[in-house]
């Protein structure tokens, strides 16, 4: 193994592990303060998740930024960092490079052309701040004597401060690894239970048959999961349930729990039936007025024998309305880290200063971004947490 401590260039003030959103931000900010920074990543290219985010257009922040959009063991933890780095701070940086962006919906800001624009800005800012980037450099461990020692496939590097910005476990194909949690545990920091978030659900064997028949259909629904209610599009797939509203609910879901789905969130099913009282219209034709035809047909096959409306007893109609407004699905599980946009859980926020992201036990050791137990809802909140927490650490590391 090559040991670099005697070579000045390999002994830096700060090593940042992970050239993703939070790693770039900490490295840039620390570099601007005149600190020498080495940014390590095992990927062939930096910022792989930034590239693919938002379908290649990167939903980089949300102008309706509020701490309530975050899930964490300590809901107050994110407040300090979010208040010191706002969506406007990020858009100002993009504007200074002439990057075009737009608001898609619900405050979500996307690049007009490509997520590569964001990556280019980060790379140029890092170059200006004198950050040295090493790619294809896999970190395998980290320890500390006087300085931090970072073990990699390219040798051992040393630094005064160490920023762990290694992200979560989702999308291993894009470079995700568990090294950040390993480093936290090695230094005696607690890591909360980890699970995939913003992830499609897998159906059980019976439900899968239904979902397969409905595959490709998207419905505007309201989903209740624990105390949370989300409204938006739900998509049936061959593997289970997906779509924005399902991804949102998945971050709050615990195995074994049921989801309550209101299939007609903006209407009253009983009123729909009453409005046509006495009519001979077939139930599946009536439901086709508010649902896609295929859905109406399959729903009738599953829950009621379709017949003319006038032949249903009032009790039957009430039951049917109840099912439409409170369809209970008990997912088999989620589709796992391979399909999850984020990891819920991470380095316990009790271990870190919310102002600096520094470990309370190990001075000089910082954790930023997704590796921390702070998970955003869908809509640009996760990247914004990466920018804000990276910015916070970059002021102190
Ligand atoms: C498909 C997809 C789409 C998404 N879209 C959005 C979106 O539009 N908006 C949004 O807000 N969020 C989105 N997210 C979530 C968002 O991308 C992440 O929350 C965010 O990138 C986390 O930033 P990070 O810096 O903490 O970690 P990452 O961006 O994951 O960076 C971690 C870096 O650490 C490196 N690394 C890991 N292990 C090692 C090791 N052993 N040695 C060296 N380097 C290592 C990785 O290669 C990686 O570059 C999306 C996620 C996915 C998977």
- What are the segments in which pLDDT stays under 50 over at least 5 consecutive residues? 1-9
Helix share bin: 25-40%
The helix/strand class is: alpha+beta
Ligands present = flavin-adenine dinucleotide
The shape, in one word, is elongated
Binned strand content: 15-25%
What is the residue-mean pLDDT, rounded to a whole number?
A: 95
Which oligomerization state do the chains in this entry correspond to?
Answer: single chain
Q: Gap between N and C termini, in Å?
A: 28 Å
H/I helix tally: 13
Number of DSSP strand runs: 21
Main β-sheet, in a few words?
A: 7 strands, mixed
Q: How big is the Rg?
A: 25 Å
List the helices and strands and how they pair.
Blueprint lengths: L10 E7 L3 H12 L4 E4 L7 H5 L6 E4 L7 E2 L7 H6 L2 H10 L4 E3 L4 E4 L4 H13 L3 E3 L4 E6 L3 E5 L2 E10 L14 H8 L8 E3 L3 E2 L2 H10 L3 E8 L2 E9 L3 E3 L1 H7 L8 E4 L6 H7 L7 H5 L5 H11 L10 H12 L1 E3 L3 E2 L7 E3 L20 E3 L7 E2 L4 H14 L3
Parallel strand pairs: 1-2, 1-10, 2-7, 10-20
Antiparallel strand pairs: 3-6, 4-21, 5-6, 8-9, 9-10, 11-19, 12-15, 12-18, 13-14, 13-16, 14-15, 16-17
Helix pairs in contact: 1-5, 1-13
Bound molecules: flavin-adenine dinucleotide.
The site of flavin-adenine dinucleotide (FAD) has 37 residues, from helix 1, helix 2 and helix 13.
